[in-house]
Write a structure and sequence with these properties.
heterodimer, A: Rossmann fold, N-(1-d-carboxylethyl)-l-norvaline Dehydrogenase, domain 2, 3 domains, 48% helix, B: alpha+beta, Peroxisomal Thiolase, Chain A, domain 1
Amino acid sequence: MAKIVTQFYPRFYEARVGKIALVTMDNGEDYKKPTTFDEEALNSLNKALDVIQKQPDVKGLLLTGKHYIFAAGADLTQVPFINTFEQGKAIGQFGHATFKRIMDLPYPTVAAINGAALGGGLEISLYCDYRTVSKGVTAIAFPECFLGIIPGWGGCTLAPRLLGPEKALELIIFNPLSQNRMIKGIQAYEMGLADRLFDTAEFLDDSIRFLEGIIDGSEKVERPPIDSSNLKPMLQQARGFVDSKVHGAAVAPYRALELIEGAFTWDIDQGFTEEDKALGDLIKSRQCKASIYSFDLVQRRAKRPAGVPKVEPLKVSKIGIIGAGLMASQLALLFLRRYEMPVVMKDIKQEFVDKGLEYIQAELARLVEKGRLPEAKARYLFALVKGTLDWADFTDCDFVIEAVFEQMEIKQQVFAEAEAVVASNCILATNTSSLSISEMSSKLRHPERVVGLHFFNPVAILPLVEIIPGGKTNDVTLASTFAVAKQLRKTGILVKDSAGFLVNRILTKMLVDCLDMVDEGADFQLVDEALLSLGLPMAPFELLGFVGPAVAAHVQEILNRAFGPQRFPVNDNLKRMVEAQIPGIYLGEPPNRKLDSKVKNLWQQRGEKDFRKEEIVERVLTNLTREVDLIMQEGVVADTRDVDLAMIMGAGWPFFMGGITMYLDMAGYTPKVLQKVFFTF
Amino acid sequence: MKAREVVLVDGIRTAFGRAGEKGFFWHTRADDMVVKIIRELLRRNPQVTADMVEENFWGATTQEKDQGLTLGRTSAILAGLSEKCAGASVDRMCASGMTAVNSAASEIALGAFDIAIAGGVEHMGHHPMAATADPNPRFLVDRLVSEDALVMGKTAENLHDMFPEITKEMADEYAMRSQQKMAKAYEDGKIAKMIVPMTVYTPEGWVVADHDQQPRPDTTMEGLKDLKTPFRAMGKVTAGNASGLNDGACGVLLVAADKAKELGIQPKMRMVAYTYAGVRPEVMGLGPIPATHKVFKIAGLSMADVDLIEINEAFAVQCIAFMKEFDLKLPDEPRLNPWGGAIAIGHPLASSGPRLMVHLMHEFAENPTAKYGLATMCVGLGQGGSVIWENLQTDGKETTKKKPATKGKKK
């Protein structure tokens, strides 16, 4: 594959008001390969500016991008090769020096943001005197803090000066740490990032007309004065937000806060110098490397899952859901929305069915209320669902998924009943979180059509599904299930039929150790705080309450049976909690959350050991290192990248940990415990 | 039904580019060019807002891909007209745009709409002439037409055969004068007024298409003399005395006369009459002759009543034949194509009809004593189209010409 090179093309237009330089950023590819900046691109910009500066009588400059893309920022493929402060700093300096040439031009300059403007792509627009934005733009963002760096080509220095503290913090801190949220053209205009908002249809023509108006004085741009009086409280609020998201485990957002604060006292050059230093520190950092690795997993590996058989998937035109409980209803809703095909939902009592249908109707109504679904469409979708008690309604289903009680006999029974009515190639999928697929299908006439399709709660939000073939599952079933996952807009990863599959096995292993340490004398809150300091989205005992002690204990037992008490001991205190029907460890919400006294009374600690946080983390991660190694040896997944992708997408583990294996490698656990690293090229 | 008066409020076109990879519209969609024209017409005429346009009528010879899917409707949506705006597309080959304008005017005349946008577009780079057509074999088997009929250059050679007195030198001189007239018009700033600049993508950066790519102002008889005659050995038709292959769009804003009055709009010209007529496909260039005789008959006018003539210069020979038929002055009739024609400007098929009208509109403005203008063009497969407009930009000056005897449209 030939290297893609971004060029800056200078062209000239003899406008009504004199000569205008039109500069286009283009890498010669379509919008699927957005324009990015590397050293060669910056050289091209320098050359373009040389050409423009040699032209006499230039009255203004307009900078824009190829169709649908303004520019998507720095070329991240270089990041893995940067190991020193000096290298990172030099990248900052070269960007600043080059972009600043635009700022120093003696005539008006306009950045016409015609499409996605991300990171360095948004930064370059800040060097222009004015910005126009198209109503069609959907992706404007500084994703840097999401990727372990900071907007260091002028973003941290120029955005606060243009927008004031509140909006700058929104763009640089809040949005990237909120699932990398992006803003649209209209929002960019409303927040003052762009001076004009134009229709897509004539966007560049209108932008050129705007520049002509600036040149001849017929256009005036009024910007409200910047109010930085609230800088301190704003920064404090942002710091609190960052703490709640990364718990001090990521460096970049804190560094960005310092730079934003500095922007209100330093001059621009000092701001740029500080940005250079920050890039020097951050690009070489573990968090940045891991983030780029994670980003690549989510961008590429997630879209082309490994292990999909190359056969034509079956066409799905009717879906059967066995069960009408909360999980089943969530699945029915998801299939309805993504397939817009008939969905039949079966349970054993009319009241269960009714409750499931009510849930679906209420969720559809909620979507209508939020403006995400037209009312007429919601009515149509609801008309596609049928609740039933009768297997006969499953006769013409192509894809059936069960979400009944997590017990082998019950699942075997509903599959046997389903098999009696469906066609011989109808896929029977199970949403089991831990039961063996092979065993579940063992009593069927056609076990080859049975497959595990494990969703994560909440179904609508978590983008991962584990796809688990049983011993007899055939290629068509497997390929079709991957196709179903794709249609549902979920990322499927192929997991071996083994106890707990992948994500639950890792989470349970962590929980088992945490419970153990509490038994030995550790404090629940201390354990939670220790693990949160890694940057996990949810502490283990918080997660326990979210999943429910009964489910957690059940999975634990299954893992215990499969792998023995050495690795997966059954925790008696947890069992007692289940028997006492206590829903969680804590009561109340943070910061007023406290240990439930019932838990305290029931828990029988066998020791009084004093734990330090470091010790807790070390125990958990050392054991996780071993467990991940066993997972790989057993072939639960084919590649450690799938472990990481699964933890990012199924458990929400942070980019800057690189899932888990990248962290274990970089933090030294894998070398210490296993005398190797997980990472392979 | 009783017909109402219909007036043309404004007209505008894109630059005409050279068809093919070297043309500046190569990476631009035809429907986007139409969108540009629609929006520019509204921008220039703020009394007419987007939600007031009721009909969007576009002509294109090839109605597929970026010119397909009912261009009149798709471009209405893409341009941001009201969802209530209707849209249609029509094909009469080179006269597709002229037909769109005439048909929209007829709709207004009969009360179907008050306000319409109409025009023509042809991206000949994306749609080489008849490239995807599948002519019925009976045309040849039954000798309905000669093989020449589908190759426009051959039909022009046939005209030379038919009129041996029209020599190659005469055709070349006509072409040279067209180039010169247009060069002068360009110099005088007349052409730029008719063109809306459009930013267009190229792989070497966006550029602004604001001038025609076809004109060769330095054309000389010497230079024309030895050009190849691609349509036959020892022929007379060359790239120099024919129009080129081009990309372009042109559209007009049409309003019922009473509606224009209500809105306080000063219209530019009034439609008097139009018609079309067929001729043998092998000599399609004759088309303007019967069409013009017919439109004069409908309007009760004669060539003597006409102050300005815009004829589409598909081929020089076809214009000379027309001039001879109507006893116009050779080699240069001052009333005819005063600012040059398609040989210089280019001929993006369907857009040429409206382009002739836009020329009339601007020429009328400069000639307030002029009363009637004729736009006429030949059409592939043997047709001609002619339309007569009355000047409304007379600055209160009396014109010398008599009123037409009959109304423009038959009831």
